[in-house]
C-alpha cells in the first residue's frame, strides 16, 4: 500500500497533487525543487521537509512523483539517487520509458486537468491515467489513485499522448477562443460577462448531444453573406480574420463531408 | 404593453422564442412560415393559427417578430403587408435599418444563445439585446423583454455585430474545438466523455480569472519540444496539424506580447 510519498517538483501540478494527497491522509515525506523559494513554499503547505539537491532525496517513500517540466524529466531521472523504487511522472506527452534507468520501477500518474496557482480543484472528479512498467505496480498505483479520485484509468503512453493532444484542443484552444472573444468585446467597450450564459449552454449542449450535432452559427449554416461580413469587420483585428476564415472553413468542410457520407 | 405577438419564421430561434412567450402568458396571434410543414408544427405547439402566405399576415399584433435566415429578412420586409406596426428581427449581424420600410416601427430583439431543435433552454438566463428606431418603442420592448428574461440590454447595430462575432468565437469555434478533440479521441478508440471534467474546469477558470490568466498548456509555457511532438503526431490528421500550429502560435504571441507590455 502506498502511504509515504515524495514530491519531486513544486509547480502547479505538484502542488495540487500534494494538497490532494495530504487531504487524503497520506504522508508527504519530502519535497524537492531546484529553488528554495518554491521548495519551502510547498513544504510549508504540506508540513514536511524539503531539499533543493536531488542527492538529498530521502529513501523510504512508497512513491516518488516527478512533476517537473517535460524537458527536465530525463535530467531529473539521470540524477535521481535511489534505485528499485516506484517513480511516477505526471506528464501527458512523455513516454513511460524515460524512467527506465537505475532499476527504477517506472510509472505514470497523469491527472487530466488544467491547474492554476491559487485556484482550488475538486480532485475526486479529475480523471487519473496510470501506466506502470511492472504489472504488480499497477495494482498498488490503482488502489492509491482510487483514494483521491473516483475516475482512474489505465492507458499506455501512445494513448496518453493522443489524450493530451485532444485536451489541448478542448481546454487550451477553447480557452484561447474565449480570450479572442473577450479581446474583441473589450475593444468595443463590451463586457466578457455577457457571453457567460452562451458559453455554459455551448458546453451543456456539446455534452448532451455531442459537439457535431450541437454546432450552430453562420459556418454550419453556410451563411455566406454573414461569414463575409464578419470576416470584413475582423480585417482590422490582426490575425483574428485569419482565425475566423480558417475555422469557419473547417466547420463547413466537416459538415459537408459528413452530409455526403449520410447520403 | 405588448400582449399579442406574431411570429414570422418557424426555425429554431422562432420556436424557442414562441415557447418562451407562451410560457410567459403571451398570446401568439399567428405563425408564418414558407412551408406548411414547419408553420403547422410551430402553430400546433403554440396553439395558434398559421399561414404560409405573407399577404395573409393578420393585423392586430403588438409585435411582429421576424426570425428568418439573415439573407431572407430584406425580402420578407418588402413583402410584409402591414404598416405602422412594431416589427423586430432577431439577427445578430443585420442592421436595424433593413426594417425602415412601409412606415414600419423597426426594432431588434436579439437573444444571445445557441438554439438547437429539441434542446430546451431556460430563457430567463438568456441575454436579450434590444434596439429600436423610435425611443417610445424601446420602453415597450424593454418591459416586454423583461417578462421573459432577467438580462435585458439596449445596444446599437454596430455593437450587436461585434457581439455576434465574439459569440461565434466563444460558442461555434469553441464547439468546433470540442469536435476536433472528439474526432482525435475516437480515431484512437478513446471516449469524449473523459474530457468532460477538463472542459467544465476550463470554463469555470475562464469565468473566475478571465481567459488570459486561466491559460495553461504547452503553448503558453512555450514548451517547444511538446509543441513539436504534438504537431508531428497530428501530421496524419489532415488540417488538424495546421490548426494546432496556428492556434499555438497565436497563444505564444499574445502572451509574449503582453509580457512585453508588463515590463
Q: Any overview of this molecule?
A:
- With 263 residues, chain A is of the alpha/beta class.
- Helix content of chain A is 48%, strand content 14%.
- Chain A has helices at residues 12-23, 36-46, 70-78, 135-146, 157-186, 196-209, 211-214, 224-233, 240-262; strands at residues 4-8, 27-32, 50-51, 63-66, 86-89, 105-111, 128-132, 152-154.
- Chain A has nine helices and eight strands.
- In chain A, helix 8 (224-233) packs antiparallel against helix 9 (240-262).
- In chain A, strands 3-2-1-4-5-6-7-8 form an eight-stranded mixed sheet.
- In chain A, helix 1 (12-23) links the parallel strand 1 (4-8) and strand 2 (27-32).
- The radius of gyration of chain A is 23 Å and the shape is elongated.
- The interface between A and B is large, with 90 and 90 residues.
Provide a compact summary of the structure.
Chain A is of the alpha/beta class. Helices cover 48% and strands 14% of the residues of chain A.
Write the topology of this structure.
Two copies of one chain form a homodimer.
Chain A: E1 4-8, H1 12-23, E2 27-32, H2 36-46, E3 50-51, E4 63-66, H3 70-78, E5 86-89, E6 105-111, E7 128-132, H4 135-146, E8 152-154, H5 157-186, H6 196-209, H7 211-214, H8 224-233, H9 240-262
Average pLDDT number of chain A: 95
Structural class of chain A: alpha/beta
- As an assembly, this protein is homodimer
Shape of chain A: elongated
Physical arrangement of strands within the biggest beta sheet of chain A: 3-2-1-4-5-6-7-8
- Proportion of residues in helical segments of chain A: 40-55%
The gyration radius over C-alpha positions of chain A equals: 23 Å
Beginning-to-end CA distance, first to last residue of chain A: 56 Å
The total of beta strands of chain A comes to 8
> Could you state the order of secondary-structure elements of chain A as H and E?
EHEHEEHEEEHEHHHHH
Our count of helices of chain A gives 9
Q: Sketch the major β-sheet of chain A.
A: 8 strands, mixed
Could you list the spans of chain A in which at least 5 consecutive residues all have pLDDT below 50? none
| Biggest chain pair interface | A-B, 90 and 90 residues
Amino acid at each position: 500500500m502506498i502511504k509515504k510519498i515524495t514530491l519531486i517538483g513544486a509547480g502547479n501540478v505538484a502542488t495540487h497533487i500534494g494538497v490532494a494527497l495530504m487531504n487524503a491522509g497520506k504522508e508527504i515525506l519530502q519535497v524537492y525543487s531546484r529553488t528554495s523559494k518554491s521548495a519551502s513554499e510547498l513544504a510549508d503547505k504540506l508540513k514536511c521537509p524539503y531539499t533543493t539537491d536531488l542527492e538529498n532525496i530521502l529513501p523510504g517513500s512508497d512513491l516518488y512523483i516527478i512533476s517537473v517540466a517535460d524537458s527536465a524529466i530525463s535530467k531529473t531521472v539521470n540524477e535521481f539517487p535511489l534505485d528499485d523504487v516506484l517513480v511516477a511522472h505526471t506528464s501527458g506527452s512523455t513516454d513511460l520509458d524515460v524512467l527506465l534507468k537505475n532499476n527504477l520501477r517506472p510509472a505514470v500518474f497523469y491527472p487530466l486537468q488544467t491547474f492554476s496557482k491559487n485556484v482550488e480543484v475538486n480532485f475526486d472528479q479529475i480523471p487519473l491515467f496510470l501506466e506502470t512498467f511492472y504489472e504488480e505496480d499497477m495494482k498498488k498505483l490503482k488502489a492509491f489513485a482510487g483514494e483521491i479520485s473516483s475516475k482512474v484509468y489505465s492507458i499506455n503512453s501512445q494513448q496518453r499522448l493522443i489524450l493530451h493532444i485532444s485536451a489541448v484542443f478542448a481546454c487550451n484552444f477553447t480557452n484561447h477562443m474565449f480570450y479572442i472573444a473577450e479581446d474583441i468585446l473589450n475593444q468595443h467597450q463590451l463586457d466578457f460577462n455577457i457571453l457567460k450564459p452562451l458559453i455554459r449552454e455551448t458546453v451543456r449542449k456539446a455534452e448532451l448531444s455531442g459537439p457535431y450535432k450541437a454546432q450552430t452559427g453562420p459556418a454550419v449554416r453556410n451563411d455566406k453573406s454573414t461569414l463575409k461580413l464578419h470576416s470584413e469587420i475582423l480585417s482590422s483585428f490582426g490575425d483574428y480574420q485569419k482565425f475566423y476564415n480558417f475555422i469557419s472553413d473547417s466547420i463547413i468542410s466537416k459538415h459537408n463531408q459528413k452530409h455526403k457520407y449520410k447520403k
